[in-house]
Amino acid sequence: MSELTVRESINQALAEELERDERVFLYGEDVADYGGLYQVTAGLQERFGEERVFDTPLSETTLGGTAVGAALTGTRPVVEIMFGDFLAIVADHLTNYAAKMHFNYGDGTSVPLVVRTNYGAGDQFGLHHSQSPIAWFQNVPGIKLVAPSTPHDYKGLLKAAIRDDDPVIFLENKLRYETEGEVPNGGYTVPLCRSDRKREGEDVTVVAIGGMVDVALAAADRLATEGIDVEVIDPRTVVPLDKEPIFDSVRKTHRLVVVHEAATFGGFGGEIAAEVAEEALFHLDAPIERVGAPFTPVPFAENLEEAYLPDEDDVIAAVRNTLGE
Amino acid sequence: MELTDERRTEVYESLLLTRRFEEAVLEAYESGGVPELPHLSIGQEAVGVGATYALEEDDWIAPSLRTRAPILMRVPLEEVVAGMYGTRSGPSEGRTTQHHMGSTERAILGTTGMVGSHLNVAVGAGLSSRQLGNDRVSTVFFGDGATTRGEFHTALNYAAVEDLPVVFVIENNGWTEETPIGQVAAVEEDLIEFAGHDLPSSVVDGQDADEVIAATAEAAERARAGDGPTLLEMKTYRYRPHAEVIPERRDEAEIERWKARDPVTIYRDRLLEEGIVDEGWLEDADASIRADVEAAFQFAREDPLPPEEAMYQVYADVEVDRDGGVVR
């Protein structure tokens, strides 16, 4: 085991996959010599050469389209999109092309590409560099959406995403590139499409996504001091969803809180709430609580952004509501 | 590129097959028999036929919604027609129409309903050729309207910056759906003026298959030699509206003027003049192609609709249920 940051975990995953499979290549805006805006790809061009790690024009249209074309024709591109907000530009190639070509072809052809991008409010980057774009893509069959929470999962899931034959949008929380955690030495993968129980508890189930897993765990620690035992489930792959562990947990705790960063309305929490209502309604002892952002763009001012972003207190309040406190 | 007499008769057969196939589509559509809305290429056949003949069989082709010829040249006729009917033997068991079909074995890149979104995809195929160290060229066909999209400029720029093996073929039929291209494109005369990028470009007579073959062969050779992309503007014309639901609004005289330069007639007359074929051969070829087309339509009409399971082919690497839940 080593203590690594999220940034180092991602960098290691990329290096190991570039080393393992010559069909893998990495490209994007400023990812090569500069090492990426967040320095996630630092050193990779030097190690693997200009043929494997290279810069592109400032055109997400080119990145999205060429990644689809490359993935359809025998290579495994890993694209960096500088901010998740820019996925709006790549959305045509991701939703109409990448997601649909396995369906559209009849010969088993698939689109093994990975789009790495970041998201996350909390650094005053404003309304166009902070959004959480999960809900934009959750209704698109054919895309896989992965949002890890720990350095261990970042590394293992990214390696699995690169080896996966389907198109994956890999979402990195940009407030947590410095977060440290234990990462095994040597190669390992974390399977896609498997939910993970991050904390075992008996009283309330909290399903949290991406950066909100930390928040939910911190809230659970505070509640534990009061004798409230919270279970935290991290779906890790948001779409397609590994639902059973969530249902199992709700059948045990009889209470559900869903936490994510994007607006509550129309967000992924609503989908989980609906799934649980369909599958486990009579196991519930209290109404489902959703914790998310208000239905506004991400505001800039310090106090507004703080009010926007869900935090531990919001999770604690929601848990208490399910307990009737 | 020198073509043997035999190859030139094949070019003619491909032109005629495309023509007869689409005439049959129109006939079937007008009698209420084809569910796929036809976007016919009648009048434009020499562009797709000529360009495909200039390429190797494993060179990637990304067709436009109207590039019918390469699909007919690389895919069995029954499969294409079944694709129009949405029946089980179509290219994707009824999941999509034939004009978006993709096939890795036949080096056809699938496309979408977004006009021009396949340009960067074709550039990506060129990128694969470079990464994998093979010499497969990627050729993308697109209409004049696509040149007014950002996709066109970003694809040309990236292919040129990286010297990727891509041939860009504009099928300029003068009309962007129902609007003359001159009205919406800020060029003096030709769409290649748009390029302004560091890549060779030329205007080609898209009604003459030999001209198309020569221009495409030169571009493909340049691409294979590592000298980067080429932009070719093929001047052509469609005799039918953008799609068969749209009433004809173009000037009858304009249509007649183009029909006087019909690509099938031009090639037939040339083969006759050069003594490569005679009237008897032409009649036999036509009869044989008509019979093939009729048989393919007959096959598709009798082909069953797909089973419901055909729809559930969404992910390649995980099993999911109909509500998107992962099956453990």
Detailed description of the structure:
The complex is a heterodimer of chains A (325) and B (328). Chain A is an alpha/beta fold and 325 residues long. Chain A folds into 2 domains: 2-183, Thiamin diphosphate (ThDP)-binding fold, Pyr/PP domains (Rossmann fold); 196-322, Rossmann fold. Chain A has 12 helices and 14 strands. In chain A, strands 3-2-4-5-7-6-12 form a 7-stranded mixed beta sheet, with helices on both faces. In chain A, helix 2 (44-48) links the parallel strand 2 (24-28) and strand 3. In chain A, helix 1 (6-20) packs parallel to helix 7, helix 3 packs parallel to helix 4 and helix 8 packs across helix 12. The longest helix of chain A has 15 residues, at 6-20. The model of chain A has no long low-confidence stretch (mean pLDDT 97). Chain B is α/β, with parallel strands linked by helices and 328 residues long. Chain B has a single domain (5-311), classed as Rossmann fold. Chain B has 11 helices and 7 strands. Chain B has helices spanning 5-30, 45-53, 68-74, 77-85, 119-132, 150-161, 181-184, 209-224, 252-259, 263-273, 279-302; strands at residues 60-62, 138-143, 166-172, 175-176, 179-180, 201-205, 230-235. In chain B, strands 1-2-3-7-6 form a 5-stranded parallel beta sheet, sandwiched between helices. The radius of gyration of chain B is 20 Å and the shape is globular. The model of chain B has no long low-confidence stretch (mean pLDDT 96). Classes of the chains: A alpha/beta (325), B alpha/beta (328). At the A-B interface, helix 3, helix 4 and helix 5 of A face helix 5 and helix 6 of B.
